[in-house]
Amino acid sequence: MFDWSGKNVVYVGSFSGTGWQMMMQLMQKDIKMMGIMHRMENVEMMKKLQAINPSVKVVFVQMNLMERMSIDQAMKKMGQMMGHIDAMINAENVLLDKDVDTTMGMNLTGMIHSTMMAMPYMDKTQMGMGGMVVNMSSVYGLEPAPAFAVYAAAMHGILGFTRSMGDKMIYQKTGVMFMAMCPGLTNSEMMMNLRDNVTWHHSESMVEAIESAKRQMPEEAAMQMIHAMEMMKNGSMWIVNMGQLKEVMPTMHWQM
Fold first, then answer.
1. Which of the following is catalytic: 11, 121, 151, 171?
2. What is the C-alpha separation between 92 and 178, in angstroms, rounded?
3. 72/114 Cα distance (integer angstroms)
4. Which residues of 204-220 are buried (b: 16+ CB within 10 A; e: fewer)?
5. Which of 73, 120, 122, 180 could make a disulfide contact with 126, Cβ separation 3.0–4.6 Å?
6. Over the chain (256 residues), what is each successive 10-residue block's mean pLDDT?
7. Which H/E stretch holds residue 6?
């Protein structure tokens, strides 16, 4: 069971959705520092977060996931403030299939850069003490998404990166575990303009099915994700759907 006491947590993502609900719930733990990284600060939400637990130091560092130099500078600043990072949650999530560069950059490429730049502050052979990286993917990282093919490509990429970094040899050397969360349909801002963000204009019936389907609340999804984190299973993937948690057991198709 992962012990949150005295831990430094970094969250990369927006001030809404499941990722943000995870931060709200983690503030009730006995953590030491909470670092928020995003393109723009939301002062009111930062105050709300801090009010949950005044004993936790909450800090914000501006970072643009589309610019590698911004990521590098921001992560160095966060690392210097914290000394070391115990847990990192990559929860930036955009659905904008008509803008391929932004969809891939925000969801996948930026996540990879920020993770690798955080590793020196986590790796026990460098400045870290080991820890955990949690990457937010989607059920569309596990299955095709004909209406959102670019988004699905990014989500599949997140799982490929997470599973690869979750190799036991990497964990033995660095002490850093990797896990991926695959939420199902969830009430969020991303779900509001689905018709404007499809890959192709032939997707009307698929979008209608998504819009009419039941969705989980971000709060219940966040609670289950924290539960999965606390199980500390390196390289694991978890479906969080309708408030229920289930581990994904991948099929091995090829082995060297």
1. 151
2. 17
3. 7
4. eebbeeeeeeebbebeb
5. 120
6. 96 96 97 98 97 98 98 98 98 94 98 98 98 98 95 98 97 98 87 74 78 90 98 97 96 88
7. none
